[in-house]
Amino acid sequence: MMESSHFLEGHQAAHRTLSNRLDKIFEMANGVCRQLTSLDAKVQAVDQVIDLYAHYNNCNSIMHSLTQLKIYEPVENDEYSGSNSGGNGGGRKRLQLVNQSKFILNLCGMLFMRLNTFTDDYVKHILNLTGDLNSNYNLQRLMLYWENISSTYRESTLILTEFYEYIRQNLPQVKRKFGAFTDITTVSLINFLQTHMGTKFQKLVEVFLNNDRFESHPDKTTSDSFLHTLYCHDVLIDRDRNQRFQEFYFEYLSNYVENEVVIPMDIDYMKKLKKQLELNAKITLSISPTMIEKANDIFLQHTILKPETASQLLEVEKDNIKFHSVRTPERYFPFPKENFSLLKIAFESRGRTFELERVFKKLTRKILKKAHPDLERLFSEACKLILLVSGYPNFGAISREEIIKILGGSLNAMELYVRFCESSIRKVNRDRNLGDHYAKSPSIFQAPLLLEINATVLDLYSRSLFRRAIMQGANSILKSLKDPDSLEHQLINFFRDIYGTSSEFRNLEATTEVILKAFYLESSFEKSSSDKNKFIQPLVFEKKMVPEIYQRGGNEDVVLPHELIDSWEEFMKHFHSIDKKPELKKVHPVYHLQHCEVSTPYKLKSGKSLSLELTLYQTCLLSLFNDYEELEFNEIMNKLRVTKSTLDVVLKSFIDAGLFILKENAKYTLNKNFSPDKRKVKDGKLRIPLLRPVSSSNRDRSNGNVVISSQHHEGHSSQWKQELLKACIVRSLKGESGGLNLPELFTKVESQLRGISIGEFKDALHKILKDKFIRCRNDRYMY
Questions:
Q1: Whose CB has fewer CB within 10 Å in the chain, the N or C terminal residue?
Q2: Residue 583: left (phi > 0), alpha (psi -120 to 50), or beta?
Q3: Phi-psi region of 414 (alpha: psi -120 to 50; beta: other; left: phi over 0)
Q4: Residue 367 pLDDT > 70
Q5: Which residues pair with 632 in a beta bridge?
Q6: Which positions ≥6 away from 639 have C-beta within 8 Å?
Q7: d(CA 26, CA 23)
Q8: Residue 64: per-residue pLDDT
Q9: Is the CB of residue 730 less than 8 Å from the CB of residue 783?
Q10: What is the mean pLDDT of residues 26-50?
């Protein structure tokens, strides 16, 4: 018993000795921490606060004890202990040397228990100095002085490092189980801080994150050390959601970009975004380099990778494309495409190219819809959209295909382009000051190139030129064709550059020559005619040079006013006198193509008299009312000798315009209170359109109803011709296994049926598709 008692006393004494010495070390650590009487208090270095000599002696004593100390314990289940004991239990027990590792592990437990108590007290002290944690200001203070707080704790626990490292280096079990002492103390500080702060700890983390994002000159040392610690030790931030720091950071970053990042949408958007990404990468790098890629990807997901942002960015860059004068097919000019290039890389690298294509198509539809019906703006926007993606064949083809589709197909695009040319030429002829603007207009010269419009467009342009020659007369057209500075002259030269070898351009040149020849004949007649017979400006064309569409109108005879009859007779004398073989030629008027300018007594606000632009039939009808106050329908028809259908349409046009009144006695009379629609008066002239009837159906004179044809007159032709055209289309596709696109099919059909119009072709094609004789796939027609 005595030996056993002495053993226990010796064991407890050693334990107490080591425990007391350990307590002395923590007392010294407390001495360092007690200096922090406020969050911003300056703390003296360890060697100025404690007696390092005494501290090292204490540590040496502990380590010496660990080396020299031998402790024994009774052997359990010792058979020898009871062999000679009899019944009184007085036998001696055998003792064995205790493995030193057990004692040292026990000592480590003592160390960590005291460390936890020390850290717990320190955190409570810090939070007490901080104040109310519901106050964002106090959390800001905690963040601001974090370096002072953590360095004080680090200095105080530094004196324990030598003792811990001795144990760790000399005992493999400890080395395997525990890491570096600085990691242990850091995790302990964070854990106790989180325990005491509860949900406010998340707010504190956000305060540190916001310090980097919102401050002009963030305290990088303060934020980096804290956030890096959270990342390195994979700290559990939100225990309810089991959310660790990295996941918490990415969620915070996502909310930050979505709600706080505002980059002005202008041409420099990408430059400003790049700066944001650089800052984001720099901040994330201080936490961990491995997080940079994901962090920047989150930034992009909430900016340029959003469809609406990508669309706005494309539109901004489109609007900033600058044009210069381009009149030859070789000259393209550079412009900044950085935004689109970066967008393409961003989408493409993530396998989302299809999304960018969809964004671009949607934007194209929106822009062109907004531009309609302003043709100049429509083609300008179309050109910019193609130039926006130039250099990228894939997107170039997509943009061109989408634009053509929106414009209604290749043929409709050609028709719109010709209308744009007409409008531009008319504006320049009216105001020469606009010449430079349209001569440098990018869309009028680039549309055929960028939209890849083929030479078929020249057939439409030839038809337009012929119509304008009839409608506008020599004064306007001669200037357009002969003046090198005129827009039309420049357009024809431009067409020569890109279509010069085509048969369509040769036809355009032939049309131009025929028109000029007709104007020269008209000019010679004007010089030779008497003043009293200058009522007509005759244009004579060979029938084969007149576009087929203008030959199809019903050339119905009409009784002309005597002034026009006299002028016509005088012109025929002049023609026979100058033509070499007049007996071989038959000249006859084409009434449905003739237009007249008629002066009226109606006054405009400017004081000028209103002039009416009328067809010959309208002019003949109006001239009757120089001699009559009112006339019935049949009286008019008998005096003019026109059909019911023609007279129906002419009267309807005057009634719709308000020029005529149908009285209760079924008689027509001039409206003495006629007031023209000011919006339709241009240059003092009012054009009264003459709609065409579908058929000469019975007329209801009481209400003046007339059946009006579609405004697309080209599509109406006789039934037999329609059937012939349909058969020709089907036959043309039978031998084409890969099918034909619309322009190719039109060209092939036109080569077999000369003189067909685009309208007729489209009507026939639509009917065949509807009857399912052919099909259309990816804009290609197949049998």
A1: N
A2: alpha
A3: alpha
A4: yes
A5: 667
A6: 559, 624, 631
A7: 5
A8: 66
A9: yes
A10: 72
Q: Are 299 and 322 in contact (CB under 8 A)?
A: no
Phi/psi of residue 667, nearest 5 degrees: -110, 150
Q: Does pLDDT of 79 surpass 60?
A: no
Is beta strand 780-782 parallel, antiparallel or unpaired with respect to 775-777? antiparallel
pLDDT at 562 exceeding the cut of 90: no
Q: Which of 205, 208, 229 is nearest to 154 (CA)?
A: 229
Query: Pseudo-torsion of CA 380, 381, 382, 386, nearest 10°?
Result: 100
Q: Tell me, what DSSP letter sits at residue 580? A: S
Question: Whole-prediction pTM value?
Answer: 0.69
Which residues are CB-neighbours of 640 under 8 A, at least 6 positions away? 558, 559, 617, 620, 621, 624, 647
Does residue 336 register a pLDDT over 50?
no
Report the alpha-carbon distance of residue 575 to residue 72 in Å, rounded. Answer: 144
Mean pLDDT, rounded, for 207-236: 75
Encoded amino acid at 332, one letter: Y
**Alpha-carbon separation of residue 75 from 1, 82, 86, 92, 138 (angstroms):** 15, 12, 20, 11, 60
Q: Phi first, then psi: give them for residue 503, nearest 5 degrees.
A: -65, -30
Spatial neighbors of 87 by CB under 8 A, at least 6 apart, are: none
- pLDDT in the model for residue 518: 80
Query: In whole angstroms, what is the distance from residue 206 CA to residue 245 CA?
Result: 11
Sign of the torsion formed by the C-alpha atoms of 183, 184, 188 and 191: positive
Q: Which of 393, 480, 395, 468 is nearest to 435 (CA)?
A: 480
Tokens describing residue 743: 């322009």
Helix (H) / strand (E) element for 727: namely helix 719-734
Any idea what DSSP says for residue 783?
Answer: -
Distance, in Å, from the CA atom of 411 to the CA atom of 526, rounded to the nearest integer, reads 40
Q: Are 738 and 781 in contact, with CB atoms under 8 Å apart?
A: no
* Burial track 601-616 (b if 16+ CB lie within 10 A, e otherwise): eeeeeeeeebbbbbbb
On average, the pLDDT of the chain sits at 79
List the structure tokens of 219. 């305290």
Cis status, amide bond into 334, omega within 30 of 0: no
**287: which DSSP letter?**
H
Q: At what angle do helices 487-499 and 410-430 cross, to 10 degrees?
A: 150
The string over 124-151, giving b where at least 16 C-beta atoms fall within 10 Å of a residue's C-beta and e elsewhere, is eebbebbeebeeeebbebbbebbbbbbe
Contact by Cβ (8 Å): 749, 765: no
Least Cα distance to 544 among 758, 755, 756 occurs for 755
What is the rounded average pLDDT of the residues 674-699? 70
Six-digit token pair at 581?
A: 């073989």
DSSP string, 451-488: TT--TTHHHHHHHHHHHHHHHHHHHHHHHHHH-TTSHH
In Å, how far are 273, 346, 699, 733 from 349, measured between CA atoms? 18, 6, 70, 42
User: What confidence tier does 715 reach under pLDDT thresholds 50, 70, 90?
Assistant: very low
User: Residues with Cβ < 8 Å from 735, sequence gap 6 or more?
Assistant: none
pLDDT at site 333: 47
The number of CA neighbours under 13 Å toward the Cβ of 449 is: 22
Q: How many CB atoms lie within 10 A of CB 110?
A: 15
